[in-house]
Amino acid sequence: MKMKNNKAYLFFQRLFKVLGILALVGSFFLAIWLYKLGILNDSNVLKDVVHHYKFWGPFIFIMVQIFQIVFPVIPGGLTTVAGFLIFGPWQGFIYNYVGILIGSYLLFILVRIYGKRFILLFLDEKTFMKYEKKLETPGYEKLFIFCMASPVSPADIMVMITGLTNMTVRRFMTIIFITKPISIIGYSYFFIFGKDIIQHYFH
Fold this sequence. Notes:
By secondary structure, this protein is mostly helical. It has helices at 2-37, 43-52, 56-70, 76-87, 89-114, 116-119, 125-132, 140-149, 155-162, 169-202.
């Protein structure tokens, strides 16, 4: 029975790694496709899409955001920016925030239940050891808070690693609740307006 379980575990481990690669490639072609449709560079097209899927659009987006956190095979930054581009700054922020809160909670709980084996479905042993060492450093919680607020940190990995600590669910969710607005806004606005900022200072 144990042998069968190990084979199944290795199968899912390889499957998620393959899905991660396919998601990266698929995201690239999706971006090209959306650009050709005009969705990425024409606000009127965006408004038409949102209006057409007025009810299901937000719900589907939140579910996608939850999925990409719990099963990190889709680049999280892409979905975060997509929320702002599709729904606008206010609604985009709310839908991103809700999806990330729920997804982070579920990911934390899954690691708390299944431990290291769940993490190794998505990380190789070497990468896991690299991050696990951070647990032994003084002030780990401060590092975790910084990573949750930073728009460029490996947030999903840090959530999984933190699931191995003795941090309470309430403490974890309080940190996520306070810090995630900073990273969501920072990442999205830098991505959307970064080109203009760079041109302004380096033109």
